[in-house]
Design goal:
Length: 311
């Protein structure tokens, strides 16, 4: 087959393919209704306004990576409000979270786990902790039981990683919707690290349905094979704008897409060659199909003020 681009009308019905390897529902990513889900806050200002409080309510476990706890605290003006939004965990080397903020959350029973290792980021430490929380039988119990022990009996350098490494082979995993705030923008090395996390987690912790929300975009990894992305018709017209299919893991081939304004087939894509599908759009009424040879990053521009009505 030779490579082709097809320009579609602004709206079209996309027939679901007879079979596909993966399925994603955009509204479910944003409102998993607490079931097997987590919200992770990284260390940048929470810049999504009141939507934050709605999101908070939609996730089962909430966790702050180190200085992310400052940002949660600073989002509110009064302790009465802060006390209603207590995270389940704060984790990291704890060099960024302010002492008085740490005390505030400590006094209110938040589990605070120190991990001083300088060989992984607080973002990665958070992912390890969430894996242990969801899959390691006895982890939650151990934290409760060891409440008065130094660091809950967890080695304070890299105990979480050790526990994760030792036990993960035996885990019986199920999918976890994991929404991360503040992974993108700000420091460029951290932003790129967040991109590497999308790729590495898809290999080592494939149970995460990992997505990043910024003040402009929802960002996910489209895995190898065919992926059906579903969404509500109204959600599409009101909230979704541009999108990009970004080969950030290296040159690859987009085998085919259906439901984009510019659908492609057998399309080679490469940053080095300046060939990337940016400023594309979803035109499928309620779904879009993307089949890629290797995982690519998909950003979906969202009109945040409208999101309130759908999640
Ligand atoms: N300026 C920034 N821009 C983007 N992301 C950031 C920025 N600062 C922190 N992060 C994210 O928030 C997480 C927690 O950051 P924090 O500043 O508390 O820790 P740190 O010790 O400085 O960072 P690291 O994770 O590298 O140890 C980081 O792991 C990273 O994912
Ligand atoms: C090759 C290499 N580059 C950078 C770091 C530094 N580093 C990576 S993650 C991290 C944690 C920060 O809290 C730090 C300091 C390293 N260890 N190895």
């Amino acid at each position: 087959m030779s490579e082709a681009v097809l320009e579609n009308p602004d709206s079209m019905v996309v027939k679901k393919p007879a079979s596909y390897s993966h399925e994603l529902d955009l509204t479910e990513l944003l409102s998993p209704n607490k079931h097997d889900s987590a919200l992770l806050i990284l260390n940048q200002k929470i810049a999504i306004g009141k939507l934050f409080e709605k999101l908070w309510a939609n996730y089962q476990v909430r966790i702050c990576a180190d200085g992310g706890a400052n940002r949660l605290y600073e989002y509110f003006s009064h302790d009465v409000e802060r006390s209603k939004f207590l995270p389940d965990y704060i984790v990291g080397d704890l060099d960024s979270v302010r002492d008085e903020i740490l005390s505030f959350y400590l006094e209110r029973g938040v589990t605070i786990i120190g991990q001083t290792s300088q060989y992984s980021t607080d973002f990665t430490k958070s992912l390890r902790l969430l894996s242990l929380h969801f899959y390691h039988a006895g982890f939650q119990q151990m934290v409760k039981a060891n409440n008065f022990q130094e660091n809950y009996g967890i080695d304070n350098c890299d105990g979480l990683f050790q526990l994760y490494k030792m036990n993960r082979a035996s885990w019986n995993t199920r999918s976890i919707n994991l929404m991360v705030l503040n992974a993108i923008d700000g420091r460029f090395d951290q932003t790129i690290h967040s991109i590497t996390q999308l790729y590495t987690a898809s290999k080592t912790d494939a149970y995460y349905r990992l997505c990043y929300l910024t003040s402009t975009d929802l960002i996910i990894l489209v895995p190898t094979g065919g992926t059906l992305i579903r969404y509500d018709k109204q959600f599409k017209t009101q909230c979704i704008r541009n999108c990009g299919l970004l080969p950030l893991g290296g040159p690859t081939v987009i085998n085919s897409t259906r439901g984009l304004k510019w659908d492609v087939s057998d399309w080679h894509t490469s940053i080095m060659e300046g060939k990337v599908s940016s400023s594309n759009r979803f035109v499928g009424e309620d779904c879009c199909y993307i089949d890629v040879k290797d995982p690519v990053v998909l950003n979906i521009e969202l009109t945040l003020p409208k999101l309130h009505e759908f999640i």
